[in-house]
Amino acid sequence: MDVTIKEEQAPFPSKSLIPGTSLPKNFYVVANNLFQVFWNLEIDDPAAAKAFFAKIDLSNCRSYGLMSFAARSSCLSVIRDRLEATVAYINNPYSFTPESFMIVDRESCPPYRTIDEYYNSYRKLFGNVLAFYPKTSAAYAKAVELSDMFKPKWAEAMEKWAKA
To answer: Does residue 6 form part of some domain?
Structure first.
């Protein structure tokens, strides 16, 4: 069944999309500005900082004092690497290969292809901290704070993408 979406029905006009993706042309600029807000935060508690910057998963969670964690996680470092992969793709979409950008773990850091993928990276980051850290921990409190801070910033980003 062939379903064609007319330009006026699409969330963003097709002429403003990055080839091979459903990303608006201004995706990286807006996404990176949003990312920098969180990347540049100073988190005083070292354990809470690790919750957001360290790549914690089921295989290494005990080193962070956790009994369990998600099999695949998200952290600000992974979001940064995926944004770097995305900008590499944007700059050269027709000859992009994973080897064309420098990150350590290319398999878990593919370029973003949709805005939903980018959103879900943050959703997963906050959700994992809320699910696996004790409610009394500084990491849990920070996840609640950052999640609340994220919502209006995400709405602003969506408005900017819609205007692209």
So the answer is: no
pLDDT tens per residue, range 91-145 = 776 665 555 555 445 455 788 888 999 999 999 999 999 999 999 999 999 999 9
> Is residue 155 a part of any domain in this protein?
yes
Report the chain's terminal Cα–Cα distance, integer Å: 30
> What CA–CA distance (Å, rounded) separates 23 from 5?
16
**Residue 149 pLDDT > 90, yes or no?**
yes
Q: How confident is the model at residue 160 (pLDDT cuts 50, 70, 90)?
A: very high
Domain containing 83: what range?
A: 20-162
CA-to-CA distance for 34 and 153, rounded, in angstroms?
Answer: 7
Q: What is the CATH number of the domain that holds 36?
A: 1.20.920.10
